[in-house]
Automatic annotation (TrEMBL):
It holds the Pfam family Peptidase_S15. The keyword Signal applies. Keywords: Hydrolase, Signal. One of its GO terms (molecular function) is dipeptidyl-peptidase activity. NCBIfam families: CocE_NonD (TIGR00976). This is Xaa-Pro dipeptidyl-peptidase C-terminal domain-containing protein. Residues 1-26 form the signal peptide. SMART domains: PepX_C. The keyword Nucleus does not apply. Residues 296-506 form the Xaa-Pro dipeptidyl-peptidase C-terminal domain. It comes from Nocardioides panzhihuensis. SUPFAM superfamilies: alpha/beta-Hydrolases, Galactose-binding domain-like.
Amino acid sequence: MLRRTFAATMAAAAVVATLGIAPAGATTDRPPTDPFFGYARAATYDVVREDVRVPVRDGSTLACQLYRPGTSTTAPAPGEFPGIVYEFTAYASNAAAFGQGAAYFVERGYNALVCQVRGSGASPGELDPFSPQEQRDNYDVIEWLADHPGSTGDIGQMGLSYGGHATLLAAVNQPPSLRAIIPINGLSDWYENTIYRGGIPNAQIRSWQASTAPGTLVTYPQHPTYDDFWRGRSVKSRWDRLTVPTLEINGWYDRYRDGMVGNFLAQPDNVWLVSGPWQHGYPEGQHADIGRGGYLAWWDRWLRHDQSAPLPRAKVTSYEIPGPGAGEGWQQYAQWPPAGTDEVDLALTSEGGLRPGGGRPAMREFSVNTETTGPEAHERLLFRSRPVAQDVVVAGSIEATIRASFTAAEGHLAVVVYDERPDGTRTRVTEGWLKASHHRSHSDPLPVRPGQTYDLGVHVLPTHYRLTAGHRLVVRLSSDDYPEIDSVAPAGRVSVEVGARGSRLTVPVLDGELG
């Protein structure tokens, strides 16, 4: 959710939305061959902008920009139109770019509202991201737009990053006029996906906190475990209430992909998942851009009640990465992981291999790295599969079970997965982290006793990745992964049991043989 990445992506998105062209130097690839993504309707209206103050239930108001279909840029068109809360976000400086993006839908017969959350831009108060107060405000904004004289009362909400999580939270609060949502790079849980990764503080989010919501630098450390403070900011804690039609736009290179996949797995009946070869940001301008036709089809279906507007042909539309590269591009599946995916069990061996079975039991050790550089050779363990004889597709989340003990009264584990080429160079594929005392629960940590061996389950973020013939799967095990997590584990050593009955990986393999 870093502002720098977000602003750059918004600038590219504004160019695409306004001019209908790709930015200079952008790579291109065709969207999926699915009528949903190729859907189109001609623009028939001008765009009328109005700055409004939207009242909320505690008597305060939020600064918003209302965009309406017009017969000119100053005369609203007669009649009633469905509405989209296009962004409900803390990034007031991007309001104009949001308006340019919203114009695509306004020109096709939608009202659109862009709002600055409480404590941002011209909205009074203190910014407290995703707080219960902010969620109440969002609820009230949706109902205000539904009650507008130019509204049909059918409202959708969409948004990127901050706006994506706000959109998901709006859905679980179930305002009566909300019909459907499109979260882009959203989350399932603010604690797990962003602030405390595996229970370990996330180093890279602090610059965002300092620039956007400095008060959180005080409040968040007061809640190091998963308590009601975090549950109140979570979609995951209310998955049973995520019941509206949901089109999730995810990126396999996005740091929040685990939350988006988790939302789909929790509610596959009403959630559709589109995962592309994208970094954090709108797909516009990135490789394999899907365009806006699918978004328009979604809104026409659920807000205009046009049954001829298509839905995606499959519940999951996923781009097999690397992309561009070895991956075979867009695939569609009825479920995730795809049917036919096998769980392949690999042991970490004493010789540094990843093999079925495991061989002789042994103990491997590494030192804890307390610096933000490294880890050095003595501060990590590497385990490598044999070169694969044919391409292997990993589709889903790798799960690691690490049997480990610590010389200190706490320990951190980072499991980082690489694709190693025959020349020894590596590409990072995915990763996962765990604070040892949180191995059973982020809510109720258990004390770590030095010297005692624990079975530590480390969840690795999902991927859809093709390992090319001749390449190896490599796992790095260490105590740190800065800046993804802080290098704050107490100094000492970590002992890892390997071989038969030792540490293992479970890898979801869709195609090919691994090990």
